Amino acid sequence: MISFMKSVPKPTYLLISILIFIFGSFIFEYYQVTNYSTIILYSLIFISTYFSMEKKSNVMKALLFIGLFLNLFIFVSSNKYLQLSVLLISALIFTFIAFVLIGQIAKSKKVNSYILIEAINGYLLIGIIITLLNSLLLLTDNNAINFTTKPNLSDIIYYSYINLTSIGFGDIVPKAQFAKKISIFTGISGQLYLAIIIALIVGKLNTSKQ
């Protein structure tokens, strides 16, 4: 079992935690287990990020610890401004992690399973960042996004990733100006990330062939 775990690329743990975050929220809410679902899902990502990074600087360790601590602390406080601050800080931490992943992909000399999984993680992390920004927006203005019912975590995740992939079914639409700006930013970020990462990977493949 231990040897199998060592053979699994480290970024796989982060990938699994993000997939649990995306799809686990629907399961928690389906079975009406929502009291601690959000804290569990976000904490899982922070923990798996720590174990997934090949090189962990002191800054990275500190940010992940701060993110995990704030994520645990936010649910024992009803202060709205504190919750807003935590959501914003968490979004900034995940943004930093996404840039670290892009940097690791750019510095790698060859394309392997490790790099491919990191590329997927970076894309999915953008969706988490957008989820945090939309949650931040809804905390300040409940009517900023036109949900048919009171939004929960799974609804916000769905809306964020649909925008990220530029599908846009139109069942949920932004109403406030700032919500529209986030929607534009989401679509552009998703397309730019794919263009940059594909260019990096194709370039490395061509270099390795030569």
- Beta-strand content bin: under 5%
Order of helices and strands: HHHHHHEHEH
Shape: globular
Residue share in helices?
A: over 70%
Strand order, sheet with most strands: 1-2
Number of helices: 8
Terminal CA distance: 39 Å
Multimeric status of the protein: single chain
Low-confidence stretches: none
Number of domains: 1
Number of strands: 2
Q: How many strands, what sense, and barrel or not for the largest sheet?
A: 2 strands, antiparallel
Q: What does the radius of gyration come to?
A: 18 Å
* Mean of residue pLDDT values: 84
Briefly note the structural class of the backbone. mainly alpha
What topology does this entry show?
Blueprint: H1 2-7, H2 11-30, H3 37-52, H4 58-74, H5 80-107, H6 113-140, E1 145-146, H7 153-164, E2 173-174, H8 177-209
Antiparallel strand pairs: 1-2
Helix pairs in contact: 2-3, 2-6, 2-7, 3-4, 4-5, 5-6, 6-7, 6-8
Give a short overview.
With 210 residues, the protein is an all-alpha fold. It is built from 8 helices and 2 strands. The relative contact order is 0.11.
Kindly describe this structure.
By secondary structure, the chain is mostly helical. It has one domain. Helices cover 76% and strands 2% of the residues. It contains eight helices and two strands. It has a two-stranded antiparallel sheet. Helix 5 (80-107) packs antiparallel against helix 6 (113-140), helix 6 packs across helix 7 (153-164) and helix 6 (113-140) runs antiparallel to helix 8 (177-209).
